[in-house]
């Protein structure tokens, strides 16, 4: 595949994804649901199969040849993935996905509140009067864990509002984040709006108040150049299956001093130093957060996905998907009865567009599009409060990836334009 700073060989990329060769309803598949789960290139599938057929064994255990090779491959994968996101290997904790990573942080803070962990863990303890701040745009995975933490500790949960155009209200953020704020958790890119949030501004507000920053990077790591260190957040979560990788793998990134101070959440084998019948000592991060059997083949597959994306060039990926986003949004704006959710202009975006079709339920729109070979997401996309903010219970979401073409977008737009006439809905 030949690449430049802004482009790559799209035909060659599409040939790398076996699933794209199939038809749906006797039509070529147009897959526009990558924000939910991305398709996998052959190199990712091959990487997992190669490990499972050649070196399958438990890692960090045993002295036999397969165990040693599995451990080496597993830790090599950590190095590859960490490098892809601008971190060092010891800053990457393997999890089953972003939901597990965000829950890990929330429950670790809860454990610190109970007095667990090393003396430095006390800095994370919460008490009544302390505040946790999120935004109206959060995925449930970056909202409910904080609801639960607030309920367990007596802390108060507050939210930064979203403007009518879908952008974050930074003026309100400056009022919501106060000297009582202990945690600021926010999404890098909304999975509904596709808008890139102003990380630097939010980090500055939180840092001024001494608050911990937690970033949901699920929709940014696959689509934008991502440098954890440069972003300045304390912790960040991402998910493998949204970035061309396997299911059941994701990661938590953390600044070393934060990971070292947080107490463990899950406990058991592989994360301990000494154990007696009454107490245990824990390994340093990241291993102290990695109890039990590890997702070895998945980590190896995810490393293959990051190498694939790196070969394309993330600047090229971002430019490609930005063009697709503009094409989707421009086309949707021109269709009678269609309202784009978060239709801000002049903002940085990834290839996500969510919308409603007046007079037609989102699920009916989705079925209509599926009959024409177009796969989109329908529902609240695990962001019910955001939909309520815009007076909706559900929307239709189209989301692009590295393999999406202009023709895919045009087929999608043509199908959307036929929805209201098909259902007999007039303006």
From TrEMBL:
A molecular function (GO) term: transaminase activity
Names of required cofactors: pyridoxal 5'-phosphate
Enzyme Commission number(s) of this protein: 2.8.1.7
Catalyzed reaction equations: (sulfur carrier)-H + L-cysteine = (sulfur carrier)-SH + L-alanine
Enzyme class: transferase
Domain Aminotransferase class V: 30-412
Keyword Transferase: yes
Keywords: Aminotransferase, Pyridoxal phosphate, Transferase
Key word Transferase present: yes
Stored NCBIfam families: sufS
Entry's family note: Belongs to the class-V pyridoxal-phosphate-dependent aminotransferase family. Csd subfamily.
Function: Catalyzes the removal of elemental sulfur and selenium atoms from L-cysteine, L-cystine, L-selenocysteine, and L-selenocystine to produce L-alanine.
Name this protein carries in UniProt: Cysteine desulfurase
Source organism (scientific name): Microbacterium koreense
